[in-house]
Amino acid sequence: MHTIEDIRITAEVFDHTVVTVGCFDGVHLGHQQIIRGLLEEARALGGTPAVMVIEPNPRLFFSPEHAPNILTPPAVKNRLLEALGVQVLYTLPFDRQTAALSPGEFVKTILLERCRAEVLVVGHDFAFGRHAEGDFDVLQAMARDCGFRARQVAPLTVDGQRVSSTLIRERVVQGEIEDIEVYLGRKFSMSGTVASGGGIGRTLGFPTANLELDTGAVPAHGVYAAEAWTGGQRYKAAVNIGIAPTIRGTRRVIEAHLLDFSGSLTGRELELVFHRRLRPENKFSSHDDLIRAIAADVEKVRALLD
Hints:
Blueprint: E1 2-4, E2 17-22, H1 29-45, E3 48-55, H2 58-62, H3 74-83, E4 88-93, H4 96-99, H5 103-112, E5 117-122, H6 136-146, E6 149-152, E7 157-158, E8 161-162, H7 165-173, H8 177-184, E9 189-195, H9 200-203, E10 209-212, E11 222-230, E12 233-242, E13 253-258, E14 269-279, H10 287-305
Helix pairs in contact: 5-6
């Protein structure tokens, strides 16, 4: 997949470009339905399927204190889009300049002059331009005037719920890990760099890797069965998310005990793929009770992921 970091300044041109535009946070099944429409249009034209990703999420620009918990950081999002068959990834930086574009300016300067788009495929709730003034009706009128075609993809509903990034974020923060796969199309995962910890887990007999995560959606406090991937290797993992009240009781941490692993993970990239929430986080009356509980969690993980 060819990537272009700022669509506003690129001079690169591709054959018969078919474009879709959005944040695509999570690259969930609703997004994947839009991508299928994109690929259909590109095949019909013998053209190039391209995604224009808006980064960061506009809500982070307009209201940083109420910014959404991001499901997929850019590197993960790009990997997922490439796996779906996207050939070109444009990034549209969302800043004051982008926010000021009128619907007409967005179509003329971004879609037509930069992308040379022949078809634009959008979701049911697509809005564009300053103050989100442009909707699909406005887009269709511009398409007729400017000589490109616009296609709208219907929303995807699963079990009576419209699939959306907002819905998935809500399920994640509530710890409803097992429900997410039907909307996401895969198990929920988090990725980050392993930070050095206090070594408390090692003194308990269960050394942990502390995942450093600056932003993003984090499941509710509790203990989870997960897969841990690092260096191309898979390990079963018991993951605790919370404040570890028996020991610390202050800052939230994400700690993963990798079964049958020895060595140091500090500084390495680690991906945690969540399978099931085993229990809420508890405060135990003694370290011995905590050790027994962790041992039971580890055995549950081993049995579940065998």
